[in-house]
Design brief:
Layout: H1 3-18, E1 31-32, E2 39-40, H2 43-48, H3 52-59, H4 63-78, H5 86-89, H6 95-108, H7 113-122, H8 134-147, H9 150-167, H10 175-189, H11 195-200, H12 202-209, H13 213-223, H14 225-234, H15 236-251
Antiparallel strand pairs: 1-2
Helix pairs in contact: 4-6, 4-7, 8-14, 10-13, 14-15
Length: 254
Amino acid sequence: MDRDQLRKLAQSRKVASDEPDDVEPVKPVKWLCEYCDKELNNEKVFMRHSCRERTRAMEMETPTGRQAYIHYSEWMRRSKRSVPPITTFTSSSFYLAFMKFAEYVQRVNLPNPSGFIQTMIKYNNVPPSLWCRDNVYAMYMQSYDAVVSPTQQYIDSLDFILQYSADNAMEPREVFGALGVEKLLELVQKRKLSPWFLVSSKAFRTYMAGCEQFDADRLEGGIQVGAMIMRIQQNAANTELFSEFSKASLEVEL
């Protein structure tokens, strides 16, 4: 190595030694979750990351999530409370209860959810966590029966079936199959067909037993068969009504 090369090497070493020792090291890149503010070490971990906050934010973009917030908002208003924004709802202790209720409303075609919420507040302020139980639905239907008697509900339903059978030249017992599951659930929701009538009809029970399990479950949920049976068994007057309705249905081959 000649003198010039040695001099250049020495100078380069001197420059390196003159650099300050307190140079701040480069910080590694962090990936931040915008939902829970958690910092993650690398992109792959970030892409796999899931948290409650993100899950709930995604659920709020679904029809069920939006309906849950609507039901929650109505409950808050009727309870004389201010309605928080939807972003606050996802952190509410009632979030899971209202998501479950929104799914329940859809599954059973609950008639008049607004009236149901009002009834829950009026009668002992039933908490949302209990709203999907059979005994609570039975209580709700008792309030409906106070407005329209079970007997009138039965008569209106019977008139509808008999008129439909006459208009379409078929036997009354054939109407259920002609209407199909979707239309039956719609008619129950609109109270054109009453659970009192359907549960007491042997022809309807036979029709439901012959359905595919999925459709049978939908009908059972939409009519709330469990709640109806509970009401009939727990009240002597209701037991007597059910017996009378069953006899009346058999007389017209229903």
